Amino acid sequence: MAKAKIATVLAILIVGGIAGYFFWHDYAQGTVTLRISDPPQLQNGNNPHYDPSILHIYITFTEIDVHQAGFGSTNSTGWHALVRSPTTVDLISVLNTPRTLASTNLATGTYDQLRFPVSTAIVTFSSTGNVTYTIPSSSFKVSITGGGFQSSPGARVNLLLTISFSDNEILAMNGYLTPHASAQVVG
What we know:
The protein is of the alpha+beta class. It has one domain. Helix content is 17%, strand content 45%.
């Protein structure tokens, strides 16, 4: 009889634990979807902003992390991975249509920065082929405009990371590119 009671209690604990996990995973956390775009900019009334000889701009992120406000930001404290493995994006392909990079659950809290180490930048030219560039500081941090976003149970947040490069800097072919980046919550 005692064994039956123990088995019943264990079964209740197991079912309760599984139900609690799914509640926590699906309802006690918010979901953030990260998208990337290279916003088309007008230069002299023309669009797109890259020279026609530039066919592709490939950048490879080793990861992309979001920072939870209130935690130190100089080391790994408070950083949560959104993109966990190397991902390559052709910025020319996201000029008009943003690409989804990740969708993940985040604990309740305010998130205020993105950090994205860039391992490579390769530009393909119509005349010379691929040219490899160095990103001076291979890891960048950008503040999320408007003070960031709040993750709360069941909430869904769409976050847009925009990255672009100077056309003149690319065409100078001096081997270095400096990204212009911003992050914002979008509808």
